[in-house]
Amino acid sequence: MVSLSVNVNKIALLRNSRHLNIPDVIWAVRTSLEAGAHGITVHPRPDERHIRKVDVYQIAEVISSTSIPASTARAEFNIEGNPFLPPFMELVRDCRPDQCTLVPDVPEAFTSDQGWTLTEKNRIRLEPIINELKGLGCRVSLFMDSIPDEMAAAREIGADRIELYTEPFAAAFGTESQKETGEKFFLAASAAKEAGLSVNAGHDLNLENLGELIRLIPFIEEVSIGHALVSDALQYGLFETVKKYLKALKH
């Protein structure tokens, strides 16, 4: 089964709109894991507009002692973000997450909106970061666009996985370009697999398009979902929403 990592950034964003701890990010983490989520994702940014440093430390502590229901496996912690912006590397060195997903977003980015282009400059910058992360015991995933020719380079500089940036897939879903876009994602994922990389996916995935993505790329290891999942939780409740996403992945 594809693993579900719940991104709790939007829970933190809502909390930060008031000087109260409502909604409680740690409650959301515990509830998601109790419902069967396989892990938790956070994307801390320098301005702490959603996830704060203190959240990361608290979440790491919760996950370290939490197992997935009906399984002996421990829940996983995924910290994603730009490794060249603070406080990313500080948090990773302190918390030793199971996975680090490296994303090339700039401080003023509204949300992550592109994958890495592995130019020689970026390869030189990323390789020592990847080596350090792996030395800390972290699995390393690179946030990538659906460009097959980039995948071998990701493996060459030491990445273990890539995370496909799926906003274009979500935008094309239900339109005339759905088939063509889906084929591009399949080819990119296949190129990653051929290069020896495992494949994750994330961004704008929801209950409607998730099943189609998994049908197209059945070897996806993990999806990271936040915005749509938290939005659906307003209607169904967080516990039941996580269950719905798990069901979508299973079927």
Describe the 3D structure:
By secondary structure, the protein is of the alpha/beta class. The protein has a single domain (3-250), classed as TIM Barrel. It has helices at 9-15, 25-34, 53-64, 88-95, 120-135, 151-156, 167-172, 178-194, 210-216, 227-236, 238-250; strands spanning 3-7, 39-42, 76-81, 99-102, 139-144, 161-165, 198-202, 220-225. The chain has an 8-stranded parallel β-barrel with strand order 1-2-3-4-5-6-7-8, surrounded by 6 helices. Strand 4 (99-102), helix 5 and strand 5 (139-144) form a beta-alpha-beta unit. Helix 2 (25-34) packs parallel to helix 3 (53-64) and helix 10 crosses helix 11 (238-250). The termini are close together.
Any descriptors?
11 helices; 45% helix; 8-stranded parallel beta barrel
Q: SSE layout and pairings?
A:
Blueprint: E1 3-7, H1 9-15, H2 25-34, E2 39-42, H3 53-64, E3 76-81, H4 88-95, E4 99-102, H5 120-135, E5 139-144, H6 151-156, E6 161-165, H7 167-172, H8 178-194, E7 198-202, H9 210-216, E8 220-225, H10 227-236, H11 238-250
Parallel strand pairs: 1-2, 1-8, 2-3, 3-4, 4-5, 5-6, 6-7, 7-8
Helix pairs in contact: 2-3, 10-11
Domain unit count:
1
Spatial ordering of strands, largest sheet: 1-2-3-4-5-6-7-8
CATH homologous superfamily descriptor: Aldolase class I
Q: Class, according to the CATH hierarchy?
A: Alpha Beta
Low-confidence stretches: none
User: How many H/I helical runs?
Assistant: 11
- Helix content, binned percent: 40-55%
Determine the mean pLDDT.
Answer: 95
**What global shape is seen?**
globular
Order of helices and strands: EHHEHEHEHEHEHHEHEHH
